[in-house]
Amino acid sequence: MVDINDFIRDFSILFPIYKSVIPWEITSNLKCIFEEIIPDLGDDYVIVNSVAIHKTAVVETGAIIKAPSIIGENSFVGANAYFREGVFIDANVKIGAGCEVKSSIICSGTAIAHFNYVGNSIIGHNVNFEAGSVAANHYNERANKNISVLYNGKIIGTGATKFGSLVGDGCRIGANAVLSPGTLLMKSTIVKRLELIEQVR
After folding, report:
1. Is 125 a known active-site residue?
2. Which one is the CATH code of 4-197: 3.40.50.1970, 2.160.10.10, 3.90.1150.190, 3.40.50.1820?
3. 107-161: pLDDT as tens digits
4. Which one of the listed residues 54, 114, 125, 138 is annotated catalytic?
5. CA–CA distance, 13 with 31 (Å, rounded to integer)
């Protein structure tokens, strides 16, 4: 089975209350996970209506952050970004202007440039998404919407119709690249500009 810890260092330490390490199970339950975590956050966070923003974080004008969401220490959220249905931004993360993030975890040191979409995904540490890149989470074009992943040469059904990508630490995603639903990227993978990643056809 796919274990997030093979892609992202110390992931189980980051979320010790949640025992599953299967990525699509986690992204499907982020609202519940965050609703458990937010009440226990310390005084370093300002919490309003289940949106927790660290006092050192910067959120620019026009950003919309829907509950429940957590924005970590020294992170930056650009103007007109849109967070929905459960988003966790770890420390020192940069989210550019006009990005949309849905039901996702973004680990420390990662930069999501501007005008990106990241849906139902788990993004590792020190990852860089150049402008306009997409982590798609749904098969609009297929009659069968169920998402499968390719791991160690085997196709694994997720049982989910909404799952984006698991992106390992240190990956680089080029401008206007598209990660199809169910993409798994091992650590330090490079995706070229304009490239389409479609691991299961």
Report:
1. no
2. 2.160.10.10
3. 999 999 999 999 999 999 999 999 999 999 999 999 999 999 999 999 999 999 9
4. 114
5. 19
